[in-house]
Amino acid sequence: MTALTQTQSSARAMLTANAEPTQYLTFMLAGEVFALGILAVKEIIEYHSLTVVPMMPDCVRGVINLRGAVVPVMDLLARFGRTSSEVTKRTCIVIVEVLTAEQESQVIGVIVDAVNEVLDIAPSDIEPAPAFGARIRTDFIHGMGKVKGKFVILLDADHVLSMDEITQLAQAPAQASALALN
What we know:
CATH 2.40.50.180, six-stranded mixed beta sheet, 11 strands
């Protein structure tokens, strides 16, 4: 190891040691534990009927009326390309605020199987996202939090809930249909 590399490693270790733990809301999806940074979470509400909007991507299940505001509701399992879970009495909608590409805030509901708890995870207990083997896109993962000897998948809310990307997904089939007609 060179002197510069050792200095950088030491500086990173000191920053990590001095950094405050970050709080994450943990929840269940298809038997796996995921988490979102608590600062992005606005509230948790009981799952109730959604208004379906035609021609939306599969991962957008519909919209809800949240105190007069229309909020799109996303099914994370469908976003990950997996089969949706059954709705049970523990199913919730987590209301999350994310930033768009234009740095504007967007409120989105996320369907989860069950909400677990809020955990403090120190930066030293967060490993980088695996390069392979994960069943979701690695750019959706902020990191892997080590909690009580197990890993919690820490999601990057701004990427996984990107309405810009979802809009592009919705437009792709329409554009393909238009090309096929020509």
